Amino acid sequence: MKVNKLKEKITLHPIMTLLLASSIIFLLSGILSIFGVQATTKVISKTTFEYNTAIEEISSLISIDGIKYIFTSTVSNFMAFAPLSGLIIILIGIGVMEKSGFLKTTFTILTKRSKKYTVTFILVLICMILGIIGDLSYIIMIPLSALLFQYGKRNPNIGIIASFAALSCGTGINAILTSSDSSLLSLTSLAANMIDPSYIIETTSFIFIMSIALLSLSFFITQITEKYLVLKLDNYEIPATKIEEEFAIGKKEKKGLALAFIAGFIYVLIFIYNIIPGLPLSGKLLDDSQIFYIDKLFSYNSFFNTGFIFIVTIFFVILGLFYGIGARTIKNNRDLCDDLGHSLDGVGKILVLIFFSSVFINIFKYTNIGTVIVGWLSEIISSTSFVGLPLIILIFIISIIATIFVPSSINKWTILSGVTIPVFMNSGISPEFSQVIFRFGESVSMGLTPLFAYFIIYLAYLEKYNKNKKTINMLKAIKYQLPYAALTFVLLLTIIIVWYIVGLPIGINTMPSL
What we know:
Layout: H1 2-10, H2 14-34, E1 38-44, E2 51-57, H3 64-80, H4 82-100, H5 102-112, H6 116-129, H7 136-151, H8 156-169, H9 179-195, H10 207-232, H11 240-243, H12 251-273, H13 293-298, H14 303-306, H15 308-327, H16 333-340, H17 348-367, H18 369-383, H19 388-405, H20 409-426, H21 431-445, H22 455-464, H23 474-502
């Protein structure tokens, strides 16, 4: 008992952990800069199709420029921090759905007569599929997952942990080509053309292996959640009798659902029509300057991408509003306005966590430590004599390590692709399979790094629904994800090895070997 109390006393709050980590980065950047730590990177030029060699050096924070940067960029960086604005806006829509009773009614129907395992599997599968919309899926699915489990009379933290595991472990697994995949594909093609100028990579080159990985990983994440995590968090379970009395769904609730689904269907239909090219007055939400459809939909300049969070928020507001009108839980404009701010009540702690996370990530990027580490890893690849399976395993592990320090897929692959693809092609391995290995490696460690901006959303919601007096610190949040990361490592590496040895097609007209 005394040992547990002592552990609780020395346990660092996430904010203190972020402050300590920021201080360590501050000192480390100065030390590494003094010793002249650097790395050489080779990036292929898109214009000259030649290698551009660059020396990546450590930028010291213990300097006038470094200190100026901290003070001048902290506020602007926080305001531009993607999880901040996205979360606040999406919570407006979730607040209307929750306060009006739409989520309570819908989730009660979904969970009341369904097996717990089925509910978890569907949640995990949806999270994996939603990788198509990129990082925005985190700020949508984590809050909703908590409410799904809460209204299903289960511990909300199970939903939070499972959804984050599915989203992060599914980072590099998409049966449908995403905008991020398209950008990576461009870099892969560029590197492949250095060896074979006529080499063409199709957008369907990954569909078979990705589909198998998506379904199998969904199944095993569900298994870990129900067979391991539920037992581990059993002490945190909220007794059903204390949550609420049995919720009965009557005529008013059914009328509300009917109105909500009709209004929501019309809204979705309008937007679907406007992202289909070639129909009369359609395709207005697409970026026609792009080649691939996924880029037209989610490029930085497309209306659909830049306004996606607001699009989803309005959809949630419509569902909550029309349910409230039908169920008579929203009787006037005052009720609606009160509902809009419901999910923002008590959000102060989350905002503080996001602020300190934004500071930590911002100064780490400034130091360039992550880029230097990825540069070192690229040098290992260029100097290796490995071929076949040893080479495949090496790249897989390098991708895992690189993701911990540089979560951005494009930033990593920009450095690694120019070295990795030629080495693989010279070993008789296709560029497409190289990209698959890189993406699978990312999936292992994405959920383990606090440098991933959306990790803080996961941590904040664990703390929000924590009914214990014990603080859920950074290490505990990572510890919850370790079984999922270990599973992902074993499963995806097995898939890679089997695909390579057997010689199964990874996509349409695409094989692991050349």
